[in-house]
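User: Can you predict the 3D structure of Peptide methionine sulfoxide reductase MsrB? Sequence below.
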Amino acid sequence: MKTLRMLTLFSTFFGIFSCTQAQKKTDEADAQPRQVQKTDAEWKKELTPEQYNVLRKEGTERPFSSPLNANKKKGIYVCAACQTPLFSSEAKFESGTGWPSFYKPLYAKNVDEKTDRSLGMARTEVLCHVCGGHLGHVFDDGPKPTGLRYCMNGVALNFKPKE
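Assistant: Sure. Here are the predicted structure tokens for Peptide methionine sulfoxide reductase MsrB:
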């Protein structure tokens, strides 16, 4: 019984510590000014209504609605708002969820992660580091080698084929 209490206490502490560390990373990322800063009116003018809803208002596109979900070409996926390179086709996989999925970003520094508590649960939101655009969420049910599934909205991405 004493061992069970110690394990519960340890797991509670570890959970709080992990959340605190994740929140610290988020707070530091939010404190840094974005390299691309535009007004709401400028974003509305430059993006399609669906892109604006996803990238600037944290919306979600309908599953299986993006042609990028079935894209099998070699190349790079970039932010639709600022063209920052985000994911390689090499890391793309078929998750069956209806959204383009990747097991790792092209460059970790190009994406930020933030705790999202909407919908009554805690998820990890993925944002473009350069413009702050909402890209999707990352989950821990992906394939090897990372075990991660970056589940991205196709309208938040543009595809640049390999030349």
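Residues 35-161 form a domain with the Metal Binding Protein, Guanine Nucleotide Exchange Factor; Chain A fold (CATH 2.170.150.20). DSSP finds three helices and nine strands in the chain.
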